[in-house]
Amino acid sequence: QVQLVESGGGLVQAGGSLRLSCAASGRASVSYAMGWFRQAPGKEREFVASISAGSRMTSYADSAKGRFTISRDNAKNTVYLQMNSLKPDDTAVYYCGGGYFPLPNNYWGQGTQVTVSS
Q1: Angle at the Cα of 29 (from 18 to 41), degrees rounded to 5?
Q2: What is the mean pLDDT of residues 34-52?
Q3: Mean pLDDT along residues 75-90
Q4: In this predicted structure, what is the pLDDT of residue 17?
Q5: How high is the pLDDT of residue 26?
Q6: Buried b (16+ CB within 10 A) or exposed e, 74-100
Q7: Would the CA dihedral through 86, 20, 112, 36 be positive or negative?
Q8: Contact yes or no for 115/38 (Cβ under 8 A)
Q9: Residue 37, pLDDT score
Q10: pLDDT of residue 15
Q11: ω before 88 within 30° of 0 (cis)?
Q12: List of residues 6+ apart from 68 with CB closer than 8 A
């Protein structure tokens, strides 16, 4: 079992930046791929970005390419999502996921709210 705890969400103006963090714990958590997903009100949860266990591979949704960067620090069991040039359409609850690359959706955190004002 893997436990995931997100942090770093908040309110930001359009064009601003936020960095989300996800701390993982539990058995063999560093051996799993990690990722970020988001769910806006009235919409289904969607993939944002993922990173393989050894950080050799990353994958991004088209909406995230060029603006978001995923990274991980296995010494700290933490994965990050640096979000730049934020848009109101990025407003959502962001969830950390753990599992298998490129879609690590076997384990979930509780989510963190990101709100981008225009």
Answers
A1: 40
A2: 97
A3: 97
A4: 98
A5: 84
A6: eeebbbbbebeebeeebbbbbbbbbbe
A7: positive
A8: no
A9: 98
A10: 98
A11: no
A12: 48, 49, 60, 81, 82, 83, 84
Residue type, 9: G
103: its two tokens: 């879609």
Cβ proximity of 96 and 108 under 8 Å: yes
Evaluate if residue 27 carries a pLDDT over 80. no
- 35 by Cβ neighbours in 10 Å (0-12 / 13-18 / 19+) ranks as buried
C-alpha distance from residue 45 to each of 48, 99, 118 (Å): 10, 16, 23
For the chain, the residue count is 118
Strands 10-13 and 112-117: parallel
> How would residue 55 be classed by pLDDT, with cut points 50, 70 and 90?
very high
Q: DSSP for 48-86, please give it.
A: EEEE-TTSS-EEE-TTTTTTEEEEEETTTTEEEEEE-S-
Please report the sign of the dihedral spanned by the C-alpha atoms of residue 101, residue 107, residue 112, residue 113.
Answer: positive
